[in-house]
Amino acid sequence: MRAQYLFPLLALLLAFGAARAATPPTTVPAVDLNRYAGTWYEIARKPMYFERHCVRDVTATYTIQPDETLRVENRCLNEDGEEVRTRGKARVVPDSGNAKLEVSFFWPFTAPYWVLWLDDDYRAALVGEPGRDYLWLLSRTPQLDAELETAALNRARELGFKLDDLIRPQQGR
User: Is 24 contained in some domain?
Assistant: First the structure.
């Protein structure tokens, strides 16, 4: 592993460990992975070290694999307009209704990926983790309907997330 990733990764793991002591947010009861798979546009996020350079056209694409894991491909454009891609793998946490995943971009480390709110038509999703440090508002389209955005962010507040530091990348595609 490259040294530049070691400190942030260790900090992230420590944050997740400390979060276990707090009551975690609740997830949706169930996620249909066939409906969830595909490309999502990032509408807003809490600051995340690994996305610090992602300023435009931020997407995450989930593809179901034959072994029932998900291939994860994150894509964005940085400040210079250059494309940045990361690839990982996610597995469902047993007995979670598919609402909790463990995602790995750097083996052997994993991070929780919890679906906290999901529009009935799978047009928008709110994803976070137990410590409430990270949060993503995702949409199937580059711009999200204001009513769906309000519903998702209200749910985030109900779950105890602080939203004063949300980052909203440009979506221009």
Answer: yes
Which segments of the chain are extended strands (E)?
A: 38-45, 56-64, 70-77, 83-92, 100-106, 109-118, 124-128, 135-139
> How many angstroms from the chain centroid is the CA of residue 23?
20
- DSSP for 9-59? HHHHHHHHHHHTTSPPPPPPS---HHHH-EEEEEEEE---GGGTT--EEEE
Mean pLDDT of the residues in the chain: 89
Q: Residues 126-155: what's their mean pLDDT? A: 97
CATH assignment at residue 63: 2.40.128.20
Q: How many separate domains does the chain show?
A: 1
